[in-house]
From TrEMBL:
Record-linked InterPro entries: P-loop_NTPase (IPR027417), T_Tr_GTP-bd_dom (IPR000795), TRAFAC_GTPase_members (IPR050100)
Keyword Phosphoprotein recorded: yes
Boundaries of every Tr-type G domain copy: 3-92
Signal peptide extent: none
Pfam families listed in its UniProt record: GTP_EFTU (PF00009)
Tagged with keyword Transmembrane: no
GO MF annotation terms: GTP binding; GTPase activity; translation elongation factor activity
Full protein name: Elongation factor-1 alpha
Upper taxonomic lineage: Eukaryota, Metazoa, Ecdysozoa, Arthropoda, Hexapoda
Protein source organism: Cicadetta abscondita
Keywords, sorted A to Z: Elongation factor, GTP-binding, Nucleotide-binding, Phosphoprotein, Protein biosynthesis
Length: 106
């Protein structure tokens, strides 16, 4: 199980791009995902603004307090600053290539 949490609308917080608001959301979501079976240290939390494109493809200069996300999983560690880097850090599932072919029909 792999999960990325993008905290959107950071441009709409009071004050805009508020670090305390991001940390509050991160804490609340971490508690929730722990209850449903995810390890919070293996989840990337990325503050973003989809409207303005902040931290989507390139690091935003409007959030200098955000030093980046770090995830630790049994396959190793990964780190980055943007949503696209978090998506690139997702590990593809292993395919059972030694087993017979399975073809879903619809």
């Amino acid at each position: 199980k792999q999960l990325i949490v993008g905290v959107n609308k950071m441009d709409n917080t009071e004050p805009p791009y508020s670090e305390p608001r991001f940390e509050e959301i991160k804490k609340e979501v971490s508690n929730y995902i722990k209850k449903i079976g995810y390890n919070p240290t293996a989840v990337a939390f990325v503050p973003i603004s989809g409207w303005n494109g902040d931290n989507m493809l390139e690091p935003s200069d409007k959030m200098p307090w955000f030093k980046g996300w770090n995830i630790e999983r049994k396959e190793g560690k990964a780190e980055g600053k943007t949503l696209i880097e978090a998506l690139d850090a997702i590990l593809p599932p292993s395919r059972p290539t030694e087993k017979p072919l399975r073809l879903p029909l619809q």
